[in-house]
Amino acid sequence: MTKPGRKPIFFGRSAEQLEQLVQQQPDVTLAELRDRTGVNCSLAAICKTLKRLGYRHKKRRSGPLSKIDRTFSGSVNSGG
After folding, report:
1. Which of 18, 24, 39, 68 is the one with CA 20 to 30 A from 7?
2. Is residue 1 scored above 90 in pLDDT?
3. 18 and 30 in contact (C-beta within 8 Å)?
4. CA angle 36, 26, 11 (to 5 degrees)
5. How far is residue 26's CA from residue 33's CA, in Å, rounded to a whole number?
6. Contact at 8 Å (CB) between 21 and 37?
7. 65: which DSSP letter?
8. 3-state secondary structure 3-23
């Protein structure tokens, strides 16, 4: 008996291709994966497939790290 609902866009060879692309370039975006596979689908479809393959979301920094500078450059005296 088959599951009801829509058949996954990425299965078999196409899922393997998607996984190979991620292994070759781990920081690839979902949009880049869609472009490289040539499959006309939503980014959510790619995301769901990657989750099914065992990949998880990797958070990115939105900007460069801020510098942490000293706010006081003099010596600290402990008394009077």
Report:
1. 24
2. no
3. no
4. 55
5. 11
6. yes
7. P
8. CCCCCCCCCCHHHHHHHHHHH
Q: Which two tokens stand for residue 54?
A: 């065992």
Q: Quick one: tokens of 69?
A: 């500078």
The SS3 call for residue 33 is: helix
> Are the C-beta atoms of residues 40 and 9 closer than 8 Å to each other?
no
> pTM here?
0.64
Nearest to 50 by CA among 18, 12, 5: 18
Tell me which DSSP letter residue 25 carries. -
Domain ranges of the chain: 13-52
Query: Which tokens belong to 38?
Result: 């040539």
Six token digits for residue 31: 């949009």
**Which residue do the tokens 């958070």 mark?**
59
